[in-house]
Structures are given as structure tokens and as C-alpha cells.
């Protein structure tokens, strides 16, 4: 099993922790399709974990690539990343929370705002529309049956069309799926995520 070093609390020595609860294959033993995905995704721990099953890795990256292509959504990338952070912080998925907080910072060009969103969105400098999208994502995550017509009317009143709202629900739902995979597998965030 691939392990990565983690410094202990006093920094005197490192503790090894597996990248995932499953045993990712060594890169040189990956099937060609899985190897290409592994390389294309910068050899990160999440793709190493998914490489246990090439078909899973292919499905995951294909859907994610489509949903998060910068210019291929109805919602701006900043709003899709905001939703990803909302869901990931609510679910406690450390991997997705740090990865998408960094992606939100990059999309916004503002790392402080992105970090404030992850820590407590209600105290972050968000627009009314951004707050409403964040709240929608939390409801989709914690209690989708609590959504009612007033939630959708609020979003419409803030300029979102029905196709926009559907995409917001899709992104939130996808991230619940993603979080559950990576939480279940115990995938560890890459060290580079902490250096941004």
C-alpha cells in the first residue's frame, strides 16, 4: 500500500499513512488508460485511489471534467466551486474541501475570500446570489426534502434561470457523491494542497 509521511504533532518524526484504504497500484503497473488519467491529473492521491478500478476512474474524470470545464457551464466556475466548497465542508470531506477551496481561490483570484467561505460562509463577503447558492448546496446535502418552492423563487429572484438552478443542484449532488467516495476510501489530501 502506498503511504505518505505525515509529521507528528511535535515534528520529531513522520508517521506513514496510506493514501487510501484500498491499495492503489504502483504507477508503472497501471493499465494504459488508468496511467494516462493518473498522469493527466498530476499523480494526485485522489486519482491514485480511483486507479484501483480503471472504469471508475474513467467515469469519474469524464463527468468531473464535463461539470467543471471553465467555459462549459451555465454557472460561472466561481459559483460551481463555491457549491463544491459548501458541500465538502458540510460533509467534512477534507480532501475535497481543501482541493476546492484552492480551486475557488484560483477562480476568484482571492485566496482570503475562498478560505473565509470554507471556514464560515455566512461571515464571508458573498453576494446575496452566492449566499443563496451556498445555502441551496447545504440543503441538498443535509436535507433535500426541505427544499421548497420558496428556495427556487429566491434563486430566480437573484437572477438564476431554471437551467441555472438545475445545474446548481447537479453540482451539489455530484459533490455529495464525490465526498462519499473519498471519505469512504479515506483518501489523504496531497501535501501540495497545503502549500497554496
TrEMBL record:
Q: Which UniProt keywords apply?
A: Oxidoreductase, Peroxidase
This protein's superkingdom?
Bacteria
Q: Which residues form a coiled coil?
A: none
Carboxymuconolactone decarboxylase-like domain location: 56-137
GO function terms (MF aspect): peroxiredoxin activity
- InterPro entries named among the record's database cross-references: AhpD-like, AhpD_core, CMD-like, Uncharacterised_peroxidase-rel
Q: What is this protein called?
A: Peroxidase-related enzyme
Amino acid at each position: 500500500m502506498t503511504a505518505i509521511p505525515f509529521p507528528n504533532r511535535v515534528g520529531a518524526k513522520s508517521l506513514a499513512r496510506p493514501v487510501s484504504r484500498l491499495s492503489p497500484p504502483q504507477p508503472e503497473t497501471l493499465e494504459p488508460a488508468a496511467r494516462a488519467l493518473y498522469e493527466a491529473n498530476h499523480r494526485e492521491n485522489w486519482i491514485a485511489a480511483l486507479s484501483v478500478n480503471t472504469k471508475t476512474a474513467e467515469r469519474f474524470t469524464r463527468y468531473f471534467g464535463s461539470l467543471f470545464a471553465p467555459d462549459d457551464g451555465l454557472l460561472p466556475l466561481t459559483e460551481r466551486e463555491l457549491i463544491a466548497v459548501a458541500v465538502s465542508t458540510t460533509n467534512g470531506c477534507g480532501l475535497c474541501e481543501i482541493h476546492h477551496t484552492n480551486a475557488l481561490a484560483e477562480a476568484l483570484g482571492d485566496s482570503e475570500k475562498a478560505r473565509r467561505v470554507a471556514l464560515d460562509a455566512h461571515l464571508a463577503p458573498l453576494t446575496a446570489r452566492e449566499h443563496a447558492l451556498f445555502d441551496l448546496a447545504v440543503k441538498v446535502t443535509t436535507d433535500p426534502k426541505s427544499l421548497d418552492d420558496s428556495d427556487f423563487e429566491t434563486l430566480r429572484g437573484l437572477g438564476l434561470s431554471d437551467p441555472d438552478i438545475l445545474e446548481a443542484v447537479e453540482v451539489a449532488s455530484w459533490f455529495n457523491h464525490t465526498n462519499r467516495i473519498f471519505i469512504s476510501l479515506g483518501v489523504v489530501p496531497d501535501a501540495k494542497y497545503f502549500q497554496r
